Amino acid sequence: MKRRCRALAIALAAALPLAAFAAPDMTDAAGPQAAHILQLWRVTVLVCSAVFAAVLVALLWAVWRAPRGGADAPADVSGLMHGEPGPRRSVVLAVGVSSVLLLSLLLASVTTDRALAHLVLRDAIHIELTAHQWWWSARYDDPQPSRMFTTANELHIPVGRPVILTLNASDVIHSLWVPQLAGKKDLIPGRSATLTWRADRAGTYRGQCAEFCGAQHAWMALSVSADPPDQYEAWAAQQRAAAATPSESRTLRGQQVFLGASCVMCHNVSGTDAGAQHGPDLSHVGSRRTLAAGALPNDDAHLAAWITNPQAHKPGVNMPGTAFAPDDLQALVAYLRSLR
Amino acid sequence: MSRLRVVVGTLSIALGAAASMSGCEREQRRFDAPPVSRDGLASVQLGPTRAGPPASGASDPASAAASSTVADAGPSASASAVLGARNHDRNAFDVAQGKRLYRWFNCNGCHAAGGGSIGPALMDDQWRYGHEPPQIVATILQGRPNGMPSFAGRISTEQAAQLAAYVRSMSGQVREDVAPSRSDGLSTGAPELRRDRETPKLAGTP
């Protein structure tokens, strides 16, 4: 119980700095894809609300005007002889209106799909996004292999340039949803899906796994930053560079701790012997805003807490806890934070 | 008549409850294991470096059987202390996790999918250093002569125990309802739950 309280307190404390990570608002479209979907959503809500209101009005009117016969009044069977032109007219009208409205919704849906498929993809950025339990890895493709780079849990895209995402899953079915940029798309192990985006407004948009994928599904966030083109190029150049070489004694010690411990079994830091691909790439982990796919803010204290006991923050996560000596832990944190 | 119905009903509910209780252990996830000190691992004596008498005895069936009993009694108390009261062998999650780690940590680089390559086969009935979980954990963490590297300080004891449980499932040593039924990658043979249960015997040159 006490432990649960403590976990809750940690979660609350972690949530406070994350308040800056604005809640995704679907109605605040930041690109053409989301704008098309928003338009369709508005049409559908409007039509369905109008139909619902009309049905309610008709029902209330029918209840209000219904003639109430006494218990011993004979049943009104006049309709059997003369037909019921009034009700028949209503039914024909309602069926006609419903068909027209349903067909127009279908038309709106098809038009939206066509509009989504017609995003101009000239000069697009290719990103291969792979979902894992419970984090995202992203490889920025380039015709020149030396210009490709890998990052995790945080995408940066240039404003105004289209993005082609190739979506894969490494373990179970996930789904990608960045409400301000596009609709959902499932990521299925063994299959590739494609999603296209364009952000027309700079900002940071929160993405989320939208298909239940295990215990920590809720803590599987993806941060998408739409930056002005020059800022994006600067970020990409920084990501392409090999990880920073430690210069101080403390960060140097931290690197030794990193390379001598279990970290290297799963993580990659470019330019060192750590080359495993099973956990998030840490070559530039210091430049990210959050840790553990949006679960914790990226600062010294949270990084130290995460390394020591990840299971307290994200129970079930594949990272085992390691109890380092306090000096080693401080050095390791300093080293990882220096990887900008 | 109605009394019989009550008795049958109660019995079937009790049976159902018992069946689901046994399922609980199979699916239980324990995420609150305290982090292991990496310096602590080195000081823990995990087990004998050799599970039985020298190799000369292994060819003789009688002495192999005898050494197998020695191997059974072999695991040191400290190894059991590290593993705790948990039985990773009976937990489907632990075995599946071990299967995942087996691929992640490149065990198949030497042992292939269990058939052996540079390293010995893991799906047969022959064990050089014993088939009990603490013995396999010791093999993983301490390493063994002729190429098996030591993973102490690289992986946690918990992960080693999960790997050991999976290694045991390769030759059918774990319960069928616990053994993995599918692979994340290309499947190379019968799934672990379809493997025949081999009778472990101590063999081979340690």
Q: Can you describe this structure?
A:
- The complex is a heterodimer of chains A (340) and B (206).
- Chain A is 40% helix and 19% strand.
- Chain A has nine helices and 13 strands.
- Chain A has helices at 2-15, 32-65, 78-82, 85-117, 229-240, 249-260, 300-308, 310-313, 326-338, and strands at residues 125-132, 135-140, 149-152, 154-158, 162-169, 174-177, 185-187, 193-198, 203-209, 221-227, 290-291, 296-297, 322-323.
- In chain A, the strands form three sheets. A five-stranded mixed beta sheet of chain A has the order 3-2-1-5-8. Chain A has a five-stranded mixed beta sheet with strand order 4-10-9-6-7, covered by helices on one side. Chain A has a two-stranded antiparallel sheet with strand order 11-12.
- Chain A is elongated and about 100 Å long.
- Chain A starts with a helix and ends with a helix.
- Chain B is built from eight helices and three strands, in the order αβαααααβααβ.
- Chain B has helices spanning 2-27, 38-43, 61-73, 77-83, 92-104, 108-111, 133-142, 157-170; strands at 36-37, 126-127, 201-202.
- At the A-B interface, β13 of A face β1 and α2 of B.
